[in-house]
Amino acid sequence: MSDGMPEREADKALAGEYALGLLPPDEAAAFERRMASDPDLRALYADWAEDLAALTDAIDPVRPPARVWKATQASLFPKRRKGRGWLGVLCGALTASALALGLLVAVDFTQGPQRPAAPDYVAELAAEDRSLVVTAAYDAATGSLYVEREQGRAAEGRALELWLIAGDAAPVSLGLLPDEDRAGIVNVAPELRPRLAGASLAISDEPAGGSPTGAPTGDVLAVAQVTDT
Asked: What is the b/e burial string over 117-155, where b = at least 16 CB atoms within 10 angstroms of the residue's CB?
């Protein structure tokens, strides 16, 4: 990068290097700190992330055979004690689209949510010691994902954030689980609905208010594949 490059062009190039996972860890951390307080820098990163995410638009999702899924899950999420760090494999280039696509969707916990009578997809996200258990049920007709926290809650001053992981795409936030209410409805954005088949849901431990970067930053507390009913 030239020292004589205009500041915006330099930041645009830097955002591209970050989106592609090319920055060393210390430079990536410095970029994230700047991005947290600089909306113009976030916009540059968003442009890169949207362009990179669009590269996979023409690829039809394919559900892997059970043996492939199990092997992949074992590789990405090796069994460890509660408090697993978010895997580097989901960072770098794979975090490129999470912030940009604007796919963070609202969670409505005010209407007395009811579990779908005949959900299209279900998942149970549970910590290894089952100190945290969250069930999910998706209704394709309405695009609504019912989530219920059956066991556990966020640590004091922290938040539980729900993520969608579809194939090689970056994790996308589906919102924060409520602190008090145990059940709620996630109104899944239309862009995300086709990605649910064969995808995974994960819960990470995040600062109060959720991830500051649009990508997971805390420990993975639970993860599960979305399955047909």
From this structure: eebebbbebbbeeeebebbbbbbeeebbbbbbbeebebe
**Shortest CA distance to 149 belongs to which of 164, 139, 159?**
159
Within the chain, residue ranges assigned H as helices are 7-19, 25-37, 39-54, 66-76
State how far Cα 24 lies from the chain centre: 23
The residues near 202 (Cβ < 8 Å, ≥ 6 apart) are: 125, 162, 163, 165, 171, 216, 220, 222, 223, 224
Kindly list the domain boundaries of the chain, sorted by start residue: 7-54, 66-228
* d(C-alpha 221, C-alpha 7), whole Å: 40
pLDDT in tens, 143-198: 999 999 999 999 999 999 999 999 888 899 999 998 878 888 888 999 999 999 98
Q: What is the helix (H) or strand (E) element at residue 125, kind and residue range?
A: strand 121-126
Of 174, 186, 189, 175, give the one whose Cα is nearest residue 145. Answer: 186
